[in-house]
């Protein structure tokens, strides 16, 4: 009875292997389609990122002050909200903050303008003296350049035949060009400061009206909640980072000013404030400071070794701060991959010049805060934080 029923079922439904074959083929086709969709999504994202970077590069004179104002607003938003809880209107709070910032910048500029002007006036007349003191370095460089030119000329003469004659070509470069990203990327300083300051004032005076208008456009409650979580995360990350970095840079400025005073450098206050401000520009600021103190020390003292001692002291203090103190104080909350930090500085410095170098780390922090609030981005987050492979259990 069982065998007859099984035979009858087989006749009606067909062999089991024949039924499972179309199902396996459909699953395989579905996997292939899913793989193609993933590859297409990756390509779309790559194209979108490249187009966005190109748009940011072309419109750098417009986007730079806007981004500076937005980052400054997110950093100062807790202060505005705190003043609002005290009963101070947002317009008065914004005006007070702008006034304090303007007075601070003006006071620092007025105090340091005298020593800075004296140092700048010494530069044109001290260049021959600097060249004489560094003559041993220039002699070695000239020897290397002369040897390179001799080798190149010998190779060119061997390659030329009797009928071939070199055609002299002269290329004249203009005395001043704006093709350099450090110059063209920053744009006009007056327009940059004006746009950033006015936009920052309106953002602070408007309070959360701009944020509420953006939230009202979002379609669902979950998207609105996700937007606010991302906004608060970026705000907290930027505020914490800039607060810590400002305190660290102020302490660094005090240490460098004291060291310059102990070493007998002129205007130690100027060097302390300059070191504090330059240290907001990652990597580049420290190199500029080292070069500046080396040049001034070379001009003011007869012994060349003294200039190397001054520059070494500056480099030692900035290196101690950058490699040990800052990572220790910021801790795991701001741990970023050093490779991505360097690449961010290179990319944004190439696109936006000095302003891009200044904004490279805040932009990377904002990206980290956004990634942390999005799902299915743990591999990206591990890559940004530099923890890929560290959490994998050992076999």
Automatic annotation (TrEMBL):
The chain crosses the membrane at residues 40-57, 63-80, 92-112, 192-221, 241-263, 269-299, 306-325, 345-371. The keyword Membrane applies. It is a multi-pass membrane protein. Keywords: Membrane, Transmembrane, Transmembrane helix. It is found in: Membrane. It holds the Pfam family AI-2E_transport. Residues 1-20 are annotated as: Disordered. InterPro entries: AI-2E-like. Its main location: membrane. PANTHER family: BLL1467 PROTEIN, TRANSMEMBRANE PROTEIN. Belongs to the autoinducer-2 exporter (AI-2E) (TC 2.A.86) family. This is AI-2E family transporter. It comes from Rhodopirellula halodulae. The lineage of its organism: Bacteria, Pseudomonadati, Planctomycetota, Planctomycetia, Pirellulales.
């Amino acid at each position: 009875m069982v065998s007859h029923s099984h035979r009858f079922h087989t006749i009606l439904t067909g062999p089991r292997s024949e039924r499972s074959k179309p199902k396996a083929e459909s699953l395989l086709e579905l996997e292939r389609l899913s793989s193609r969709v993933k590859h297409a999504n990756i390509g779309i994202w790559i194209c979108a990122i490249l187009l966005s970077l190109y748009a940011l590069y072309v419109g750098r004179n417009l986007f730079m002050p806007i981004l500076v104002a937005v980052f400054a607003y997110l950093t100062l938003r807790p202060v505005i909200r705190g003043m609002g809880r005290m009963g101070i209107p947002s317009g008065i709070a914004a005006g007070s903050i702008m006034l304090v910032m303007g007075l601070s910048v003006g006071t620092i500029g007025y105090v340091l303008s005298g020593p800075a002007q004296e140092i700048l006036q010494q530069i044109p007349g001290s260049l021959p003296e600097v060249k004489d003191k560094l003559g041993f370095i220039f002699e070695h460089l000239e020897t290397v350049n002369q040897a390179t030119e001799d080798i190149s000329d010998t190779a060119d003469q061997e390659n030329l035949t009797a009928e071939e004659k070199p055609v002299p070509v002269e290329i004249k470069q203009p005395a001043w060009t704006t093709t350099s990203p450090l110059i063209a990327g920053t744009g006009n300083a007056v327009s940059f400061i004006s746009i950033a300051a006015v936009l920052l004032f309106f953002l602070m005076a408007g309070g959360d009206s701009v944020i509420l208008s953006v939230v009202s456009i979002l379609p669902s409650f979950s998207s609105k909640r996700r937007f606010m979580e991302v906004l608060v995360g970026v705000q907290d990350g930027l505020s914490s980072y800039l607060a810590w970095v400002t305190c660290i840079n102020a302490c660094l400025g005090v240490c460098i000013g004291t060291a310059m005073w102990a070493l007998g450098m002129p205007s130690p206050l100027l060097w302390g404030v300059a070191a504090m401000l330059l240290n907001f520009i990652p990597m580049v600021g420290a190199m500029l400071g080292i070069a500046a103190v080396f040049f001034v020390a070379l001009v003011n003292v007869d012994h060349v070794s003294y200039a190397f001692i001054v520059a070494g002291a500056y480099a030692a203090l900035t290196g101690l701060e950058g490699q040990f103190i800052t990572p220790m104080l910021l801790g795991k909350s701001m741990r970023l991959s050093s490779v991505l930090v360097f690449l961010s500085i290179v990319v944004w410095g190439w696109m936006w010049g000095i302003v891009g170098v200044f904004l490279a780390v805040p932009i990377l922090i904002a990206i980290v805060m956004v990634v942390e609030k999005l799902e299915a981005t743990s591999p990206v987050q591990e890559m940004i934080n530099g923890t890929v492979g560290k959490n994998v259990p050992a076999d």
